[in-house]
Amino acid sequence: GMIRHYKFNVVMKNTTRLCSTKPIVTVNGEFPGPTVSAREGDTVLVKVVNHVKYNISIHWHGIRQLRTGWADGPAYITQCPIQPGQSFVYNFTVTGQRGTLLWHAHILWLRATVHGAIVILPKRGVPYPFPTPHKEAILILGEWWKSDVEEVINEALQSGMAPNVSDAHTINGHPGPVSRCYSESGFNIPVKPGKTYMLRIINAALNEELFFKIAGHTLTVVEVDATYTKPFKTDTVVIAPGQTTNVLLTTNLGTGKYLVAASPFMDSMAIFVDNVTATATLHYEGTLSTTPTTLTVPPPRNATPIATTFMNSLRSLNSKKYPAKLPLTIDHQLLFAIGLGLNPCATCARGARVVADINNVTFVMPTVSLLQAHFFNIGGVFTDDFPGNPPIAFDYTGTQPTNLATMSGTRLYRLPYNATVQLVLQDTGMITPENHPIHLHGFNFFVVGRGVGNFNPEKDPKKFNLLDPVERNTIAVPSGGWSAIRFRADNPGVWFLHCHLEVHTTWGLKMAFVVDNGKGADESLLPPPSDLPKC
Ligand code: C2O
């Protein structure tokens, strides 16, 4: 493969949205940031130079990082952050993946504005397993806050309560036309009639799952999280933070302007939601600017049946060329109960603080990186006694248990290299059931089942899809339900697992696996790069 060089200057940039201007953290002054493109097999070198007052680190979300865990990016998990005035070169090779992914800051809430697309083309001469599109477009869905996002989360942490929601959703950084803001229009997608386009849709939002729709057009899903799927048609795409979806769009209407809409999907009752739909315009060539735009009605925020139908339609392509390498025997059977809790807090307004947990553990971030602690055998940083099952079984989706308090710790789960894992992610109604997009670093996994209510270990596995389960890196665990995933621990290192709703990660809905290589030479993690930042 080729070597691709990128330079990311992390700089502040004054940016105007919703009629007001504020300085935001950006890469190279762009919001969203620059696209990283590579072909399968290429090596990517990104030099990140930190010119801002915050510590920074960048994560290449969904890149496997086989043996290169040092380049994964989550601060204090695989590296110490890049301090102001410092730089670090992320160096990784793209192996066995093709499609769309995203990169984003992986520290504080900086990913609100520090994010961009990763486009992985197939190897030269290798076609897509679907008709070659006439053109491609990247659509990054996100959020805009009028206030400074770091202030939003810091205030919430002080009060112990939930943070404010964003002021608008965005498509490629734009909420859509805002009345009375002269310079602001929505993003424009120019198309020619009678062609097929590929849209690379990315959800880079901090805190919301989204519906995505285009008026008058049906979309064909062909890939998610840089893995090919069996093509299927849908009016609405459902996409959680951290997920990516490639769709084909046939411009069969010939003329006109059609609204493109991104709106929230959040089916729990208690939570605040940013209800502002982001809009863009699909604009057929030659259509007069005076032609009215054909509108679309986004699904209501609690349209769970639409989401369920969408998720159940996702299947891996599982062709001869792209087989689903699903583990059929399982070494580690894990059940992670995920949710929110309440811990006592003397300084908080209500005497308690909202926390989040997995198996009743609220994860505590270390002050040195876990990967370094593992690689150099530094004691006292973490323990490897993370519970593989909830310490107390309860009716996860029934009434609240009386004790909502959690334990805390920097506890990891140890997996021998190449072990096979089945992990059931069970949402709980500790405070309220919620959708949780769970992301695993370092691996793709297969989604063998999902359901509502409590996972039933006797009955539910009988219904698992062991034939063509979708392969991905982020799974939207249904509100008040469960998802079952399988993966092979074929990547040595320390790998973060967390809710990709930033508020839940901040509250502690996270843990890490340590995958131990034993001694085998090609199974082992490469040594750390010499410029790896220090804490
Ligand atoms: Cu996209 Cu750990 O995150």
TrEMBL record:
<keyword id="KW-0186">Copper</keyword>
<dbReference type="InterPro" id="IPR034285">
    <property type="entry name" value="CuRO_2_LCC"/>
</dbReference>
<dbReference type="GO" id="GO:0005507">
    <property type="term" value="F:copper ion binding"/>
</dbReference>
<dbReference type="InterPro" id="IPR011707">
    <property type="entry name" value="Cu-oxidase-like_N"/>
</dbReference>
<dbReference type="InterPro" id="IPR034289">
    <property type="entry name" value="CuRO_3_LCC"/>
</dbReference>
<comment type="function">
    <text>Lignin degradation and detoxification of lignin-derived products.</text>
</comment>
<dbReference type="GO" id="GO:0052716">
    <property type="term" value="F:hydroquinone:oxygen oxidoreductase activity"/>
</dbReference>
<keyword id="KW-0052">Apoplast</keyword>
<feature type="domain" description="Plastocyanin-like">
    <location>
        <begin position="137"/>
        <end position="286"/>
    </location>
</feature>
<dbReference type="Pfam" id="PF07732">
    <property type="entry name" value="Cu-oxidase_3"/>
</dbReference>
<dbReference type="GO" id="GO:0046274">
    <property type="term" value="P:lignin catabolic process"/>
</dbReference>
<dbReference type="GO" id="GO:0048046">
    <property type="term" value="C:apoplast"/>
</dbReference>
<dbReference type="InterPro" id="IPR045087">
    <property type="entry name" value="Cu-oxidase_fam"/>
</dbReference>
<dbReference type="InterPro" id="IPR033138">
    <property type="entry name" value="Cu_oxidase_CS"/>
</dbReference>
<feature type="domain" description="Plastocyanin-like">
    <location>
        <begin position="10"/>
        <end position="123"/>
    </location>
</feature>
<feature type="domain" description="Plastocyanin-like">
    <location>
        <begin position="386"/>
        <end position="518"/>
    </location>
</feature>
<dbReference type="Pfam" id="PF07731">
    <property type="entry name" value="Cu-oxidase_2"/>
</dbReference>
<dbReference type="InterPro" id="IPR034288">
    <property type="entry name" value="CuRO_1_LCC"/>
</dbReference>
<keyword id="KW-0439">Lignin degradation</keyword>
<comment type="similarity">
    <text>Belongs to the multicopper oxidase family.</text>
</comment>
<dbReference type="InterPro" id="IPR001117">
    <property type="entry name" value="Cu-oxidase_2nd"/>
</dbReference>
<dbReference type="Pfam" id="PF00394">
    <property type="entry name" value="Cu-oxidase"/>
</dbReference>
<keyword id="KW-0964">Secreted</keyword>
<keyword id="KW-0677">Repeat</keyword>
<keyword id="KW-0479">Metal-binding</keyword>
<dbReference type="InterPro" id="IPR011706">
    <property type="entry name" value="Cu-oxidase_C"/>
</dbReference>
<keyword id="KW-0560">Oxidoreductase</keyword>
<keyword id="KW-0325">Glycoprotein</keyword>
<protein>
    <recommendedName>
        <fullName>Laccase</fullName>
        <ecNumber>1.10.3.2</ecNumber>
    </recommendedName>
</protein>
<dbReference type="InterPro" id="IPR002355">
    <property type="entry name" value="Cu_oxidase_Cu_BS"/>
</dbReference>
<dbReference type="InterPro" id="IPR017761">
    <property type="entry name" value="Laccase"/>
</dbReference>
<keyword id="KW-0732">Signal</keyword>
<dbReference type="InterPro" id="IPR008972">
    <property type="entry name" value="Cupredoxin"/>
</dbReference>
